[in-house]
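Saturday, quiet lab. Running sequence design on the structure tokens for the scaffold JK sent over.
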């Protein structure tokens, strides 16, 4: 029997973040995990034509936005055309990164058998090489979610995002580093594997990362030539306007991606863990950690699509290999299970969640926090 289908416009209301789970939860984690496994299996058993149609429609929309946006930029001497073209190109980049690239690279559509949608071979419109992303994100982050010292997404090697991270004077710049990471997010992700925190500590040097830097430079160079040389040159006398439109579109994508991702991992109510806390964890405990380390965002159909359905970050961390457009359907089921077991389920509107993220970034810049 397949999971009940809800309209994608249905939203989850914010829920109170509980301070602690039920006292008997440790004795029931296997049962808790089994119920979540059952949700996953129901979706897997129901995968089919509507999932294939969905991703094909999103790809078609992304390509139309990109072609239309770039075409309008070539006529950008007319201000409305520049604005429309820039917005369309920015939206196409958001779809390519969030709803297509990120989700396809998780293997969510491998079952379709289409080479273009095979996660291990997919390359996206981003400065970060896909192979590096698959290691740092799909493996390191999703296996060791919010474990300080193992999950490098906790601060991206740049920020202090947990009080479990020892303070050092460098972190006084936390708000500035966060702003720079936001506007340059694709490049921050591209150097994720550089392990800047280990370089700062003197544990490794740049020479140890030669191959990684070579691959990253090749991808950054290709992206730079495409957006800032090739397309502007094709526009002839309108080259400066096309150049500006491409920069603005990339900025749109960077700021939006950063905001959605940070709101899914670091608002009030989310937890980080020590390595010792997660030793020998069971499947149920792994699920429990994913939920405590994640937060959802409330919104409507288009908000969820353009967030890559990472507005359902809880469900994504539980089931990263399920097609993300299914998260809206299973979120009420996951929440109901969490309520029965007394597990905190963090959900709230974007602005509220982001405000708490900004507060955390500023707070953790100081040595007494």
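Result came back. Writing it out in full:
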């Amino acid at each position: 029997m397949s999971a009940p289908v809800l309209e994608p416009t249905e939203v989850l209301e914010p829920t109170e973040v509980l301070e602690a789970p039920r006292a008997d939860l440790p004795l029931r984690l296997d049962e808790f995990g089994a119920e979540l496994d059952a949700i996953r299996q129901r979706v897997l058993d129901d995968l089919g034509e509507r999932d294939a149609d969905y991703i094909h429609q999103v790809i078609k929309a992304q390509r139309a936005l990109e072609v239309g946006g770039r075409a309008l930029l070539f006529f950008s001497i007319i201000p409305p055309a520049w604005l429309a073209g820039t917005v369309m190109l920015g939206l196409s980049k958001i779809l390519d990164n969030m709803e297509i690239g990120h989700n396809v690279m998780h293997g969510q559509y491998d079952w379709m058998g289409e080479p273009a949608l095979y996660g291990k071979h997919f390359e996206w419109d981003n400065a970060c090489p896909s192979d590096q992303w698959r290691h740092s994100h799909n493996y390191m982050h999703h296996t060791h979610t919010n474990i300080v010292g193992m999950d490098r997404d906790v601060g991206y090697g740049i920020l202090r995002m947990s009080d479990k991270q020892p303070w050092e004077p460098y972190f006084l710049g936390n708000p500035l580093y966060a702003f720079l990471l936001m506007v340059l997010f694709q490049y921050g992700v591209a150097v994720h594997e550089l392990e800047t925190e280990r370089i700062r500590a003197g544990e490794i040097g740049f020479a140890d990362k030669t191959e990684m830097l070579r691959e990253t430079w090749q991808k950054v160079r290709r992206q730079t030539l495409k957006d800032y040389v090739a397309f502007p040159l094709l526009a002839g006398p309108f080259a400066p306007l096309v150049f500006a439109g491409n920069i603005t579109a990339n900025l749109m994508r960077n700021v939006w991606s950063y905001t959605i991702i940070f709101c899914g991992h670091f608002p009030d109510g989310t937890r980080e863990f020590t390595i010792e806390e997660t030793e020998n964890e069971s499947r149920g405990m792994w699920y429990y950690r994913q939920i405590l380390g994640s937060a959802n965002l409330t919104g409507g159909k288009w908000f969820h699509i353009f967030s890559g359905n990472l507005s359902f970050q809880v469900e994504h961390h539980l089931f990263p290999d399920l097609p993300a457009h299914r998260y809206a359907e299973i979120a009420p089921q996951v929440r109901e299970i969490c309520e029965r077991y007394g597990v905190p389920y963090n959900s709230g509107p974007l602005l509220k969640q982001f405000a708490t993220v900004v507060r955390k970034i500023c707070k953790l810049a100081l040595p007494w926090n």
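Notes for JK: Confidence is low (pLDDT under 50) at residues 1-20. The first strand starts at residue 296 and ends at 297. Ask whether to fix the surface positions before the next round.
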